[in-house]
C-alpha cells in the first residue's frame, strides 16, 4: 500500500512538473512572439522614417543641384557675354588698325614717289655742282699759276710764310694776354679770397659752448651719499668698475662729481646713478644690471643723434655705420670743442664757400660733416685720424673727392680735388675762431712763452708780446741797429721759423715795430 502511494505521489509530481514546463513554454512563446512583433513594428517604423528622410534628402540634393546648375549657367552666360564683347571690341580695333594701316601704306607710297622725284632733282643738281666745281678748280689753278709767276713763289712756300707770320702774331698776342690776365688775377685773387672767407664766416652762426671733463649729479639730500658709497665703499667701487669713470663724493652739499675724459662713460654713469637713486635698490648686482641697460640706451641714442643730424643737414645715402659714428661725435670733444658741433659747423662753412665758388654744395657739405670721422673709430689705430677717416670713407663707398678731402685736410696726403682745400680752410676757421676751443692753462701759457722766446732769439729784438690768445705776435726792435728794410725781412724770418718749429691752429700775425725817437731841448 505504501509503495502504491509513493508511486502516486511521484507520478503526481511528474505530472505537475510537466504541466509547469508546458505552461512555462507557452508563456515564454507568447512573450517571445509579442517581443518579435514589437521589434518588427519598430523595424517597419524605422524603415518608414528612413524612407521619408531619404526622400527629403533626395529632394534637398535635387534642389541644390538645380540651384548650382542655374548659378553655373548664369556665370557661364555672363563670362560668355564678356568674352563676346571683348571679341567684338577686338574686331573693331582690328578693323580700325587695318584701315589706318591701309592709309599709312597709301601715304608711304605717296612719299616714296615724292622721294623718287626729289632724288632725281638732287642728282641733277649734283651733276650741275660737279661741273661747276671742276670749272672753279681749273680757274683756281690758272690764278695760282699766274700768282706764282708774279711773286716768284710756289703756293706751298707762300702758305708757309703766311702761317709763320700768323703764328708769331698769335704768340705775341697770347703772351701779352697771359701777362695781363696773370697780373689781373694776382691783384684780384687775394681780394676775392678774403671776400669769400669773410662772407662765409659772417653767414655762419657759431656757438661758444665748451665741453668739460666732469659732470655733476645733483641729489636731494646727503643721506643718499651713504647708499651710493655702500658698505666699505663696495657700491661706488662697483659703479666705477662698470662705467670706467671716477666718482668723487666730497663735502659738496647735495652733489656728486663724475670725472672722466670720455663723455660717453660720464653720461652712462650719470644716467645710471639717476636710475639707481630713483629705484632705491643700490647694490653691486643691481649696479651692473642698470649700467648694462643704460649703455644699451646710450647706443640707441647715438644712432638716433646720427640720423637726426644727417636729416637736419640734408645729407642722404650715408652708410649706417657712418651715421652711427656721426652720432658718437656728440660725445667727443677736441680741445674742449664738441666734435659734432664742430663737424656741423665745418659742413655749413663748406656749403657756403662752395656756393660762392660755384661748386657742388651737397658734396662739400658731406665732406665737411665727415672730415673728422676718424676721431670716433672705437678701435685702437696707429694711423692719423685724417687717414683713418679716409679709409673708412673708402670702405663705405663714399665719393673719391670726399675721401681725398678727408685724408688731405691735415696735409697727410696730396690734394687731388678742389674740395680738399675748402675743407682744410673751413676746419681752420671753425677751430681757430675765438671761444671755439679750450686748452689746459699750463700748455696755453707754455705755448705763449715759446712763441715769445722764439722771436727774442733773433738779433735786434728788444721786446716781444704774444697777444690775442697767441693769434698775434708783436715784436719791438732796436731802431739803432735794425733798419726799415731789415725789419720787413725780420718779420718774414720769424714767420718762417714759427711755421717750422711750432704747432698752432689757424694763423699767427707777426707785427714788427720799429720806433725812432729824436729828442732835443730848447733852453
From TrEMBL:
**One Pfam short name:** RNase_Y_N
Q: Which InterPro entries match?
A: HD/PDEase_dom, HD_domain, HDIG_dom, KH_dom, KH_dom_type_1, KH_dom_type_1_sf, Ribonuclease_Y, RNase_Y_N
TM region positions: 6-28
Membrane topology recorded in Swiss-Prot or TrEMBL:
Single-pass membrane protein
Q: What is its EC number?
A: 3.1.-.-
**Which keywords label this protein?**
Cell membrane, Endonuclease, Hydrolase, Membrane, Nuclease, RNA-binding, Transmembrane, Transmembrane helix
Q: Which residues form the HD domain?
A: 339-432
**Basic and acidic residues compositional bias, start-end:** 107-117
Q: Where is the signal peptide?
A: none
- PANTHER family from the entry? RIBONUCLEASE Y (PTHR12826:SF15)
Task: Give the protein's recorded name.
Answer: Ribonuclease Y
Q: Which organism is it from?
A: Dyadobacter jiangsuensis
What high-level taxonomic lineage is stated for the organism?
Bacteria, Pseudomonadati, Bacteroidota, Cytophagia, Cytophagales
Gene coding for it: rny
Amino acid at each position: 500500500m505504501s509503495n502504491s502511494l509513493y508511486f502516486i505521489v511521484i507520478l503526481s509530481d511528474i505530472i505537475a512538473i510537466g504541466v509547469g514546463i508546458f505552461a512555462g513554454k507557452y508563456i515564454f512563446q507568447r512573450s517571445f512572439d509579442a517581443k518579435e512583433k514589437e521589434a518588427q513594428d519598430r523595424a517597419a517604423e524605422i524603415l518608414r522614417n528612413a524612407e521619408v528622410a531619404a526622400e527629403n534628402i533626395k529632394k534637398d540634393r535635387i534642389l541644390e543641384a538645380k540651384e548650382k546648375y542655374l548659378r553655373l549657367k548664369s556665370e557661364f552666360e555672363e563670362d560668355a557675354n564678356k568674352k563676346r564683347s571683348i571679341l567684338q571690341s577686338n574686331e573693331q580695333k582690328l578693323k580700325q588698325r587695318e584701315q589706318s594701316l591701309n592709309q599709312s601704306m597709301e601715304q608711304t607710297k605717296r612719299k616714296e614717289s615724292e622721294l623718287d622725284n626729289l632724288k632725281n632733282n638732287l642728282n641733277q643738281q649734283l651733276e650741275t655742282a660737279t661741273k661747276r666745281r671742276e670749272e672753279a678748280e681749273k680757274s683756281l689753278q690758272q690764278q695760282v699759276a699766274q700768282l706764282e709767276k708774279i711773286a716768284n713763289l710756289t703756293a706751298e712756300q707762300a702758305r708757309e710764310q703766311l702761317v709763320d707770320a700768323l703764328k708769331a702774331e698769335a704768340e705775341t698776342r697770347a703772351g701779352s694776354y697771359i701777362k695781363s690776365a696773370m697780373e689781373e688775377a694776382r691783384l684780384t685773387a687775394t681780394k676775392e679770397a678774403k671776400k669769400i672767407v669773410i662772407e662765409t664766416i659772417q653767414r655762419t652762426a657759431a656757438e661758444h659752448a665748451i665741453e668739460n671733463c666732469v659732470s655733476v649729479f645733483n641729489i636731494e639730500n646727503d643721506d643718499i651719499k651713504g647708499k651710493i658709497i655702500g658698505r666699505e665703499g663696495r657700491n661706488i667701487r662697483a659703479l666705477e668698475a662698470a662705467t670706467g669713470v671716477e666718482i668723487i663724493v666730497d663735502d659738496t652739499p647735495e652733489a656728486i662729481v663724475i670725472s672722466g675724459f670720455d663723455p660717453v662713460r660720464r653720461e652712462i654713469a650719470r644716467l645710471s646713478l639717476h636710475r639707481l637713486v630713483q629705484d632705491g635698490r643700490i647694490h653691486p648686482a643691481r649696479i651692473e644690471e642698470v649700467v648694462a641697460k643704460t649703455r644699451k640706451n646710450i647706443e640707441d641714442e647715438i644712432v638716433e643723434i646720427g640720423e637726426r643730424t644727417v636729416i637736419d643737414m640734408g645729407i642722404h645715402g650715408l652708410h649706417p655705420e657712418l651715421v652711427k659714428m656721426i652720432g658718437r661725435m656728440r660725445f667727443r670733444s677736441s680741445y674742449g670743442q664738441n666734435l659734432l658741433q664742430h663737424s656741423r659747423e665745418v659742413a655749413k662753412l663748406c656749403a657756403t664757400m662752395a656756393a660762392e665758388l660755384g661748386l657742388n654744395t651737397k658734396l662739400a657739405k658731406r665732406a665737411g660733416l665727415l672730415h673728422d670721422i676718424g676721431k670716433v673709430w672705437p678701435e685702437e689705430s696707429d694711423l692719423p685720424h685724417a687717414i683713418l677717416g679716409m679709409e673708412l670713407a673708402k670702405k663705405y663707398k663714399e665719393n673719391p673727392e670726399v675721401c681725398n678731402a678727408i685724408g688731405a685736410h691735415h696735409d697727410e696726403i696730396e690734394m687731388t680735388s678742389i674740395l680738399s682745400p675748402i675743407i682744410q680752410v673751413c676746419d681752420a676757421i671753425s677751430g681757430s675762431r675765438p671761444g671755439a676751443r679750450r686748452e689746459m692753462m699750463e700748455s696755453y701759457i707754455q705755448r705763449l712763452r715759446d712763441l715769445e722766446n722764439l722771436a727774442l732769439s733773433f738779433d735786434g729784438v728788444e721786446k716781444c708780446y704774444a697777444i690775442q690768445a697767441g693769434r698775434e705776435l708783436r715784436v719791438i726792435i732796436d731802431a739803432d741797429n735794425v733798419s726799415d728794410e731789415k725789419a720787413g725781412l725780420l718779420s718774414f724770418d720769424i714767420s718762417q721759423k714759427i711755421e717750422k718749429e711750432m704747432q698752432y691752429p689757424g694763423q699767427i700775425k707777426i707785427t714788427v715795430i720799429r720806433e725812432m725817437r729824436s729828442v732835443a731841448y730848447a733852453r
